[in-house]
Design a protein that fits this description.
Length: 424
């Protein structure tokens, strides 16, 4: 078989076909030797879905712990636990659960990674996942765990008054009478930096996801109806890009609200800031300070109190009177619902698919984000929930209680995974 010059020009076959002396059969054999032969049937079972978690890591779908409540840890102060942070990555020098009470007494509680496979746990002595801060347990060196500086008398201490850095080494606190927010060392309890920039009392703080080296963005909201975006330098352990800079400058000033900022969230991956004022509405800004959109809430959804923003572009807003809304980053209302609980804390799973809430009823509830369908509730606690956090491995929910304790709940998001439900 020979080929005309038209086939050479069009280049419609593999290069082995263009040798003038080869027969068609020889050309096919040469092609198979070079590129292989595709069989008539690849599989006898259906092909697994692309990026299938079931195929890649099947052990993630095994039941690792059966009980819902793992442990309860009571602090001697009895003051409500108003903030919980769970930086439990194994790479940290001290993986810990840091708690802050309404009396501004904080504790660095060591984290033991015991949420491994159930079989592996049986081969070693049982160990509680959290070890209480020895300074708190022994009532020694309490000055190293107390933030003594006074807040403005009108400030009601809540979870949004505090931010913990990703390395567990510093606490940022707002609400001071001098219109500042401050940085304290968790090791010594000493004040390390005072940051000014607002014209009125700072009412809330938020932190972006942390970068390599611990750098991140800090967002502060105030009664002056503005938000300031700051840069946390993980190397220098201070707000501001330069070390020993007494007067840190904000990266951006976000305006558009008419009254006190009540809640805010920041996502550096999306480059967005979403904030709510005491009387509404909620606004979307870029991290450069540009106002993009005002979120139009349904009728009678008036007073935003909590905000969560996922990397998938879902914004979940909790309003007073048990009202929830889910918006897209384009401002479209996706769904809404009303609950009887007065919610005081909520958080998202890392993949942004699940919402966990807790409030005065003492019940932790898990919801599907896109339609706010309730997936499960945990046994009720004997006190209201004031703060929530989740361990780095997404296996443990830690709740701060109004009774001055923390409760650890085991969670397995895989039980709602479509592959798990199909297979089991």
């Amino acid at each position: 078989m020979t080929f005309s010059d038209d086939y050479f020009i069009s280049n419609v076959y593999y290069q082995h076909f263009y040798h003038m002396l080869l027969s068609f059969l020889q050309a096919v054999e040469a092609q198979i030797r070079s590129f292989g032969q595709t069989p008539s049937q690849l599989l006898i079972e259906p092909h697994p879905p692309r990026s299938s978690a079931m195929q890649v890591t099947p052990l993630m779908f095994t039941d690792q712990m059966q009980q819902d409540v793992i442990m309860v840890l009571k602090f001697p102060s009895n003051s409500p636990v108003t903030h919980v942070a769970a930086n439990t990555q194994l790479g940290l020098a001290v993986p810990a659960i840091i708690t802050v009470t309404a009396s501004r007494l904080f504790a660095v509680n060591k984290w033991h990674n015991v949420t491994g496979l159930h079989g592996a746990m049986q081969e070693q002595p049982y160990q509680l996942p959290v070890e209480i801060d020895p300074l708190i347990a022994n009532n020694t060196g309490m000055h190293r765990r107390q933030i003594i500086d006074l807040l403005d008398q009108s400030i009601q201490v809540n979870s949004q008054c505090f931010v913990i850095t990703a390395d567990n080494r510093f606490i940022l606190v707002c609400g001071f009478w001098d219109k500042s927010f401050r940085v304290y060392s968790t090791e010594t309890g000493k004040l390390t930096q005072v940051i000014f920039g607002h014209w009125d009392v700072v009412t809330c703080l938020a932190r972006s996801e942390s970068y390599i080296g611990g750098d991140c963005y800090i967002l502060s909201g105030s009664r002056d109806a503005t938000l300031l975006l700051w840069y946390w330098n993980g190397k220098n352990h201070s707000v501001g890009e330069y070390p020993n800079n007494e007067y840190a400058a904000p990266r951006a000033i976000l305006t558009g609200h008419d009254c006190e900022i009540s809640c805010a969230a920041i996502c550096a991956e999306l480059g967005l800031v979403i904030s709510g004022s005491k009387e509404g509405p909620c606004l979307i800004h870029t991290m450069n300070g540009d106002l993009l959109k005002a979120l139009e809430s349904p009728e009678n959804y008036l007073h935003p109190r909590l905000i969560q923003l996922s990397t998938e572009g879902h914004c979940i807003i909790y309003y007073e009177k048990g009202q929830f809304c889910v918006f897209s980053v384009n401002g479209k209302l996706l769904t809404k619902m009303e609950t009887e609980d007065s919610v005081k804390a909520m958080l998202l799973s890392r993949d942004g698919q699940y919402l966990i809430t807790g409030g005065d009823s003492g019940i932790v509830a898990v919801w599907q984000v896109w339609d706010l369908k309730q997936l499960m509730t945990y046994p009720g606690c004997d006190a209201g929930i004031r703060a929530m956090a989740m361990s780095h491995d997404q296996r443990v929910i830690i709740t701060g209680m109004a009774s001055g304790s923390i409760v650890l709940f085991y969670i397995d998001f895989n039980r709602w995974h479509h592959e798990y439900q199909t297979r089991y």
